[in-house]
């Protein structure tokens, strides 16, 4: 790989992207800095920057300003979470190198991909490159890039650069998650309810919905799909409509105004009651959602997570030993690992740190 902006090696591009994004205080700023560095190298025509839940890989927001037209998002998410397609984020996230090119995933027959047939080809795009941003603690986001038919195809140099972005940007995005949890402000808004029909068009939305979605636009009091309803909402709604899916699903997203927001979707089974097919409740995320992201972002193992939760509840070493079936010595070993990862020295420090970083801000008026 040749030199770009002082970068003379492939891995250095990822390092340069991280340096550019270090001052970001929001996901939008983070991805804007990343795109500024990698655009001259990867030369994409569109780029959707996605954040995902490390536990479920569900869409939780991101930056779509350089992505596909908003009118295409419902169909995109329908394919992503209901129908399935090649170059799937969940499949890529499980690979040693989570980078995928749609043309390769379909072995050159792009017409096998509904995403290509229904979205990319009508818009004049030739291929799609996906990069999952992942570190050893989980997947935190993805870059979804496309080139038009007028541009040269993605090649080995671009794939090598994409692979170099995976770990450094994954770690940087994980740290940003922690920062956002620590700085999030409380919201006094009442929960909102959105009813969607089979095509994910809004049938009804309570007035409180507008308070949760900063970018939500309204016409005659009804929010419209093509006017900014967040992709994360469509993702959770599509999840309950997928074949064989559970009747309900819970996810979350980041709101610039309200911080972490819980999304809970239900599949409506009685078609005679209403034209709506899916109901989604939007409300402030509680401690359960916070702790799930916190332990993932700190890189705690499942056993360390369980012990941390017991410590936060005030349980003694003897109590934890009895509950988990571990010896007190093993419990202390796990606690030492937790202290090392979270940067504290004692149980008291651990409880105080979690409270100060991740709960006290939610108790402080915005």
UniProtKB/TrEMBL annotation:
<dbReference type="InterPro" id="IPR036388">
    <property type="entry name" value="WH-like_DNA-bd_sf"/>
</dbReference>
<keyword id="KW-0805">Transcription regulation</keyword>
<dbReference type="Pfam" id="PF00196">
    <property type="entry name" value="GerE"/>
</dbReference>
<protein>
    <submittedName>
        <fullName>Helix-turn-helix transcriptional regulator</fullName>
    </submittedName>
</protein>
<dbReference type="InterPro" id="IPR029016">
    <property type="entry name" value="GAF-like_dom_sf"/>
</dbReference>
<dbReference type="InterPro" id="IPR016032">
    <property type="entry name" value="Sig_transdc_resp-reg_C-effctor"/>
</dbReference>
<keyword id="KW-0804">Transcription</keyword>
<keyword id="KW-0238">DNA-binding</keyword>
<feature type="domain" description="HTH luxR-type">
    <location>
        <begin position="293"/>
        <end position="358"/>
    </location>
</feature>
<dbReference type="InterPro" id="IPR000792">
    <property type="entry name" value="Tscrpt_reg_LuxR_C"/>
</dbReference>
